Amino acid sequence: MTTDPGLERWRLILGAPAEGACGGLGGDGAARGGALDWLYGRGDPEQDRRGVRRGGVKRDGGRQGGSGPSPLTTVDWLDEVHRLFPKETIERLERDAVERYEILDVVTDAAVLERIEPNPTLLRAVLRTKHLMNPEVLALARRIVEAVVRDLVEKLATEVRQAFSGTRSRRPSIHKQARNFDFQRTIRANLGHYRPDERRVYIERPHFHSRTRRHLDRWQLVLLVDQSGSMLDSVIHSAVTAACLWSLPGLKTHLVAFDSDVVDLTSDVTDPVELLMKVQLGGGTNIARAVRYGASLIDNPRRTIFVVISDFYEGGDPGDLVRSVRGLVQQGTQVLGLAALDEEANAAFDHGTAQRLADVGAHVGAMTPGELAAFVAERIGR
Question: N or C, which end of the chain is more exposed by having fewer CB within 10 Å?
Fold first, then answer.
């Protein structure tokens, strides 16, 4: 048995074939190996396609040696994982169990849900599988939704407050905050402390901008979010963003979800948990129909920000979509098309349709929820 922590890690990473070089596992090391084998020993979809099983043994229709999944239940496995691994590793293992291997009882078994720690991966899994849950399990799953959404709202609310705190003023401020640092005035005021031999300016007195109070007056924000299966992260972030913007004075926020149908979720914006529990993922995509509905909500076109969050793969008539967006732009509405982002923040969308929308005057790009709040604040504050 190996007693070297480094060799033990390599043995856990490489699996049973590395035992000769790294040594065997004992005690908690063996338990960690068993927990990893329970999950990753069941085979990888890509390896299955190539006919290779974990450990490099060729599949020929049956199991031949090697360490396959142990008879642990999902509940037992979770208990072992939480006992043996640090938090970051636990989250990765739970994510792989749900998303890579589709072990759905992680989020549909009451006994499992009582033990599991809420995190964004589980939130996505709950929203995808809530239709499979009985009332008891659904109540436990709601705990996960509430915990993760509360954390997201707290983080985004800080960014929203900063975005709407006001524009910079030329008047100096006694409040020393990094975001209000007046670089040019600070350099000018401290040029007398420049040392040529060191090529440095020593700052004895930094200067800061003050901020004016931002006044919001009779603006509308219409958020249209695609709820097709690939857009789950965007649905979550849109619900949280709408909740944070809802209470701002002078800003009337609408939230509309769509696939091939259109659902107005504005009445639930103040409760993003309830809103997300009502979302029905999947279906086709008819963006043009959603845009027409959103246009019907507009009171004053020139004081409206109209946001479409989608991958822009239009299941309806792309020409109809382009004509609808052109009409909104021509009447003075500020149209923003936001491309879908995956969990690594990479944009994934139909570039052709997005370019056609940009050509008729829409602003098209990719933004985080905080950047969207800043965009809205900047447009309103003009």
Answer: C
